[in-house]
Amino acid sequence: MKKETSVRLTKNPEYYLYTRNMFNYVVMLEDTGRLSELPKNLFVYYVISLFADEADNGGIGQYITNSSKKTYPFLRVCAEYLAHKEISPFICEVCDYIDSFPPDTESDEFFAGLEPFDNRFFEIQKKHEIQKIVLKYYRENFEVERITIPVLKQKESDTCGYFTVAKEEKCRDAEVVAKAFLDILSSFEAQRWSIELCVYGDTFNVTASSFGEILDLKKILAEWGKNDALRMARGRICDFIKEVRFSTYPTVGEDIYHNYVHIEPDGYEKNEYMLKYYSLKATGATNVNPGENEIILFHISRTKKPGAYEKMKAYWENNYSNYPNIEKFFERIAW
């Protein structure tokens, strides 16, 4: 049976545009050349703001060589819809230049010819701030306030994977899950872990942290569903906890990034979990520790899982020291 969901078009499209269902829908429209099926105001906002974001970050050459180039066939028409006295003619000139070369051209001559456009883009951006202009267009040109879209699974890639918990991997025993977590931590032999059990009213989180060698998150994503010695432990944790996150804070030059793989039920297939990789620049954040790795078990309800907190706490207190690379366990009350 085809699944559908309703999406309300709020005044700020960023609130819904990158939610899972909406994002998967937009990617499908990109891949099939059907972006113009979006409501007109959202169509224009998405195409032109993506162009502006890419050009602002790395020039028009970045826009036309990254995955954002899938929106290029719609760039001219969106500029015409926008009908801005400076932005629209400029974008049409960019399109005239790009169209004068064979498709997918990446010659030195092509990129050299884009440089004057980059300079003009930054002049226009400084004067008008394209993202604000296109947001104004979006807000002033509503034709519909809600759309119905299909619920689509994101395609598997190096940043997206799926994991199914088998019947024999399901678990309701908190002590068994506590042991499974220690087994997984111990498999990262280069790490020295400390485990924090943190209570927030009715819920508690578990955070294992380490410093030093940065975890390879894309490798973790790719190997999470392997049928190896830890397969049962992974299945038990996913079934019991539901939300698991691997996080790292590596540095690249002077910048700090928050990279993470979030694991949660995908809401599409029974007993199936989605693993999604994200990378965000974290420079300037006050709670960032460069070089830190974390594995977090999220939002465990003490009401829905009575006794789980006490059993897990007791098991970790009595057994964490049996694992050579787990150095510390402690409790923190945040209420």
Looking at the structure, what is the overall shape? Answer: elongated
Mean pLDDT: 93
First-residue to last-residue Cα separation = 45 Å
SS content category: alpha+beta
The poorly predicted ranges are none
Supply Rg. Answer: 24 Å
Number of helices: 12
Biggest sheet: strands, sense, closure? 9 strands, mixed
Quick synopsis:
This protein has 335 residues and is α+β, with helices and mostly antiparallel strands.
Can you give a write-up of this model?
The protein is elongated. By secondary structure, it is an alpha+beta fold. The protein is built from 12 helices and 11 strands. The mean pLDDT is 93. Strand 4 (193-200) and strand 5 (203-211) form a beta hairpin.
Descriptive terms for the model:
single chain, 335 residues, alpha+beta, 9-stranded mixed beta sheet, two-stranded antiparallel sheet, 11 strands, elongated
Which helices and strands, and how do they pair?
Layout: E1 4-8, H1 14-17, H2 20-31, H3 40-58, H4 60-65, H5 75-82, H6 87-99, H7 108-128, H8 130-140, E2 146-150, E3 160-164, H9 174-187, E4 193-200, E5 203-211, H10 217-223, H11 231-241, E6 244-248, E7 251-252, E8 255-265, E9 272-281, E10 292-301, H12 308-319, E11 326-333
Parallel strand pairs: 4-11
Antiparallel strand pairs: 1-2, 3-9, 4-5, 5-10, 6-8, 6-10, 7-8, 8-9
Helix pairs in contact: 3-5, 3-8, 5-6, 6-7, 9-11, 9-12
